[in-house]
Write a structure and sequence with these properties.
Blueprint lengths: L19 H24 L6 H11 L1 H16 L3 H20 L4 H11 L2 H4 L3 H16 L6 H31 L2 E3 L10 H13 L5 E3 L3 H10 L3 H11 L11 H17 L5 H6 L7 H30 L8 H13 L12 H16 L2 E4 L11 E6 L5 E8 L11 E6 L3 E2 L2 E2 L2 E6 L15 H18 L19 H7 L6 H7 L11 H9 L5 H20 L3 H4 L2 H10 L17 H4 L11 H19 L4 H12 L7 H9 L7 H5 L6
Parallel strand pairs: 5-9
Antiparallel strand pairs: 1-2, 3-4, 4-5, 6-9, 7-8
Helix pairs in contact: 1-2, 1-3, 1-4, 1-5, 3-4, 4-8, 8-12, 10-11, 14-21, 16-19, 17-18, 18-25, 21-23, 26-27
């Protein structure tokens, strides 16, 4: 057992030595160790202190937290039947262990005992916040339930963990199960050369002749946007919007059960619904306030939305179908602005984008990002980097994994592997990763990205900065462990630099000539930024509203099928009639691929987008590379984690509360 690489948290994660066979014995051993540490706290008869209560509790699960994070990560980026089976074998036990921590009566008594000590009453800063948040979390997660309630809560958590994992697996398997092979090049009219080459390469990778299309974003999006053949667009759209509904991978009954369990859990814990339970300690605080926020944004967006859709249908000269929207929107944008996003691809070679992004944050935050050497990796495409402060201090390291694989889940995300602490005389660096599914290299060309993919890199790196620039004395409050309607601020604000000429000139260079984006093309890109801005906004509002309605209002006895209920709501936010088999919700991993995830919290993206649009006005007005503004953003936002109330942190940076109209102005929905 001592040779198991999962048993000890190490800075150099031994990705080259971790095997599926290590998972079950390693996780089970670490659960036993964590249980023993918690039991030691319970049995300790010594007077309660910070060290033997709060610090001991935080340290009790550190090795287990690390191992579970690594295994979950590998299952998401390099899955195999063996790894999936091993993870599924131990996940119920790990879920049961974590759900039992706040239900441990002896531990709860020790926490309450410490809270009454003179030492606890004199706590300030992060320590005082950690104590209060821990007490509140224990109460909200069942510490004061009776024995029957605690038993039922544990059962709910274990079942939620199992079925949300199955949900995620079904989406991955369903996505990978589809391919469309085209052998007649005439059917591919309209498709850009970059997408044609990628489809050809995809076919060759499977020893096929022709052009292969999948439901992975770099394949699906160009086809949906550019293919002239509406029948192929329709076939792809129907397959994409019906993922994870096949008999052998059907997520529809899982969604109904997840919602039922979440509802039962919330009511067991004394909340009206799951939204109120989840949002209790977030900036919105309640489902009603989150819904009011979305409805107000909806009200302000809808008039422009109606105008945009009427204009698109007039441009198309016929009724629009769902598989027509991206296609005609791109043609209309090209007609209005003489702008085709494909024109930008040659200026966004992935490696130069990444290096330019590093230069931007070096200017803003006084840090240095360098390529690390000799770090074990889980795939040859992965890169490892380290981040040092201006004085040479190692702040953290991270891995970047940008390209799609069949063994990797879709989407883009950031994960934390190790979270350090900053205490007098000792600083521990952080370790994390950022992942995406961007356009891969084709042939002898580098990976050439769309502007949206560039924004994705900047977005995920913003999360990573929030992690590695954290300087908090309590590990549980460090990094991205903040309210989820605040966590997107550091990520979304980074996207703004993708639209600034001075920033683009650092990295947007033609991969063959090295020249910057021509001024005429840049002008077209800027003018087209707010094109169909209301539709972009309505799409996100629709996701947020359907999420809240599912978690606050849906009643299968009254509303029937969850897919029909969801689709009826989403129809309001889609400018074309949805087909009968539209089942997008069955692949909505943000909501249903983990026990909590973004469930009842998808509104967070829009909430944080208001914050980021407003906060960026300081950089816009005082200099997008201003080291003074950068230092204040780092000090007041990026370094603080959850050590203080996020609303107060925001006010400290901006000197006021957020302006809710900032996003509407940036989106072109109201006059700037």
């Amino acid at each position: 057992m001592s040779e198991n690489p999962l048993l000890h948290a190490t800075w150099r994660v031994p990705f080259d030595r971790i095997e599926a066979a290590h998972v079950e014995p390693g996780i089970r051993e670490l659960i036993l160790q964590a249980e023993a540490r918690i039991e030691a706290i319970v049995r300790d008869a010594a007077p309660r202190t910070w060290d033997n209560t709060m610090l001991a509790l935080e340290q009790a699960t550190e090795n287990l937290d690390y191992a579970i994070g690594i295994v979950r990560h590998l299952e998401g980026v390099a899955t195999s039947p063996e790894l999936r089976a091993a993870w599924n074998a131990v996940e119920p036990a790990s879920s049961a262990f974590y759900s039992q921590i706040p239900l441990n009566e002896g531990l709860w008594k020790q926490l309450q005992g410490y809270a009454e000590t003179p030492e606890a009453k004199l706590l300030t800063g992060p320590k005082q916040r950690f104590l209060q948040k821990t007490l509140d979390s224990f109460r909200r997660h069942g510490a004061e339930l009776d024995a029957a309630g605690k038993a039922r809560l544990g059962e709910i958590d274990v079942e939620l963990s199992a079925i949300t994992t199955k949900f995620s697996e079904n989406v991955l398997d369903s996505t990978n199960s589809f391919e469309l092979l085209i052998t007649d090049e005439a059917q591919l009219a309209g498709l850009p050369p970059s997408a044609l080459a990628a489809a050809r390469q995809s076919a060759e990778s499977k020893s096929l002749s022709g052009w292969r299309f999948t439901l992975q974003a770099p394949s699906y999006i160009p086809a949906a946007t550019y293919l002239d053949d509406a029948s192929i667009r329709e076939k792809l759209y129907r397959a994409y919007s019906a993922r994870a509904t096949e008999p052998e991978r059907d997520n529809r009954p899982l969604i109904a059960r997840i919602l039922e369990l979440r509802r039962e859990k919330a009511r067991l814990l004394g909340f009206n619904d799951f939204a109120d339970f989840i949002l209790h300690d977030r900036m919105a605080h309640s489902g009603a306030r989150a819904m009011a926020f979305l409805e107000e944004m909806h009200k302000k967006t809808e008039p422009v939305y109606v105008q945009e859709n009427a204009a698109l249908e007039a441009f198309a000269g016929r009724a629009i179908q769902p598989w027509d929207i991206s296609y005609f929107a791109e043609k209309q944008r090209r007609a209005l602005y003489e702008f085709d996003e494909e024109q930008l691809r040659p200026y966004f070679p992935a490696e130069k984008v990444v290096n330019g992004m590093f230069e931007i944050v070096e200017r803003l935050y006084g840090i240095r990002v360098t390529r690390g050497e000799d770090a074990p990796l889980w795939h040859p495409d992965v890169r490892y980097y380290e981040v040092h402060d201006r004085d040479g201090l190692l702040l953290g390291g991270f891995y970047a994994d940008w390209f799609p694989r069949e063994t990797k889940r879709d989407g883009a995300w950031m994960d934390a592997f190790l979270t350090g602490v900053d205490t007098p005389g000792r600083f521990e660096p952080h370790l994390g990763c950022i992942c995406g599914n961007l356009t891969p290299p084709v042939g002898d060309k580098p990976a050439l990205l769309t502007h949206r993919e560039v924004e994705t890199i900047f977005h995920e790196f913003g999360h990573l900065l929030h992690h590695v620039l954290s300087r908090v004395s309590v590990r549980s409050l460090a990094g991205t462990a903040v309210a989820w309607d605040f966590v997107e601020l550091p990520s979304q604000i980074m996207e703004n630099w993708c639209w600034e000429r001075a920033a683009l000139d650092l990295f947007a260079r033609h991969y063959q000539t090295g020249e910057a984006i021509p001024e005429e093309l840049f002008g077209k890109m800027k003018r087209a930024r707010t094109y169909r801005g209301a539709n972009v906004q309505m799409r996100q509002l629709g996701f947020g509203i359907v999420d809240l309605k599912l978690h606050r209002e849906f009643d299968p006895a009254l509303d029937g099928d969850v897919i029909g209920f969801s689709s009826a709501i989403l129809q309001t936010f889609v400018p074309a009639p949805l087909p009968e088999n539209y089942s997008m919700i069955a692949a909505f991993t943000h909501l249903f691929s983990s026990p909590v995830g973004y469930g009842a919290a998808y509104y967070s993206y829009k909430w944080a987008e208001v914050l980021d649009a407003d906060a960026f006005t300081r950089f816009r007005d005082e200099g997008i590379f201003s080291p003074e503004v950068g230092a204040q953003f780092r000090e007041n936002i990026l370094s603080k984690g959850d050590s203080e109330d996020p609303a107060e942190l925001y006010r400290r940076f901006m000197g006021r509360d957020p302006d809710p109209d900032a996003l509407l102005k940036r989106s072109g929905l109201i006059a700037a």
